[in-house]
User: Fold these one by one.
Assistant:
Number 1:
Amino acid sequence: MRISVVGLGLIGGSMALDLKKNGFASEIIGVDINEKHCEEALSIKLVDRILPIDLALEQSDIMILAIPVQHIVKVLPEVLNMVKSQVIIDVGSTKQLTSESVKHHPSRGNFVATHPMAGTEFSGPTAAINNLFRSKAVIFCDVELSSSEALKLVSDLYFCLGMPIINMNSQEHDLHAAYVSHISHISSFALALTVLKKEKDAQNIFNLASGGFDSTVRLAKSSPEMWTPIFTQNAENVLNVLDTYISELIQIREAIETQNTEALNDIISEANKIRKILKDPR
């Protein structure tokens, strides 16, 4: 099985590592417009070869589009124009615009829209790690538009990565992703900016930062090139989530300002219910 990976960053690179290691892929072909990324990917043996996207598709059984979402919308229709029997996967964090871009394409059945719910705050080929995806969920979107053959092949691929599959339509995906993933990044960016504006002594930040701060602000190190288009593509859902988030912050602020310990205690107790959802044993 030859697999081409377009976009040699954290997600594409980590998929390449595991698919080759686990024997699903016999060869990984890399595609990236960043020459430095291509050189790094070859030097660390993330890929076997580097080719232009048209030649990579021609020599592949599966092509994985692991590029920022604003580029997926442009590249996917072009790839489907060239496709023969190959299966195309995207791994973008938004799905509705991607789905609409190829909804009526004659080769739509060759495409499976997926979102593996895994990642770190790092980017580039050297960020790729083994077992990034194991036991994390992957979302398949609009499966009724994909052929049964394509779905079977892509299901086998994600089974090899150790990922259980959840089916949604693209609208549901973007709504839930806004609540679970996108707001987490916005919160982290906002916290980092707050600390940077209020605490001018970098050494104090370094000295006083503990596990709680580090884990909360970790996502603020994420790539702006990746997250800016995610927020703008999913703007309606993200804005709705932000309104709810801001409303909760205002309630917390009011309780602290009025020294309303009962209200503050109730707010924290209500928030503690997230333990059941996340299966916190405590």
Number 2:
Amino acid sequence: MEIAVFDIEGKDTGRKISLDDSIFGIEPNDHAIYLDTKQYMATKRQGTHSSKERGDVTGSTRKIKRQKGTGTARFGDIKNPIFRGGGRTFGPRPRYYGFKINKKMKQLARKSALTYKAKSNSIIVLEDFNFEEPKTREMAKLGANLKLTGKKSLIVFPEQNKNVYLSSRNLKGVEVVTSDELNTYIITRASVLILVESAVDVLHSTFKN
């Protein structure tokens, strides 16, 4: 498919760039998107939750009362979970929530997410640009020119662009990433995907390898 290339003023340059159908025009796989998004969010969980169970609580292990003949329920030591200050039953323990996904599955998920963006006309290609210095005002102006105010936009560069990144940090709903940082979660979360022209070639070579 072909898509028009715009400049930072929001005007059509008259040029078009071709998006590879093997990346932006496949049959989307919703389950792959689900698995990749779930894996991304799971690896972000700290998993540092913890609680003291019976063996972790400080206290005597002396049996509180005799086993039989009291007319009430039997009790062990003071660390029994039913007592105030006792250990917690089956409490949370530190753990790692992440899980593995095959490389081909992750690639399929990202292609599917890009395809959905292409089908909904939510991809904009910008000619290469840079700011002389970090200016939030310049980035806000760019969003206004492209009519993206109030929308979650994801700008993809082929490599780190410090000035553009710093210019976007204080703007709500604007995220700047490099092509190798692109993942299914941030693609699906964005309303509009903005690809810098040179980033398209990088994406083509990345997904074809």
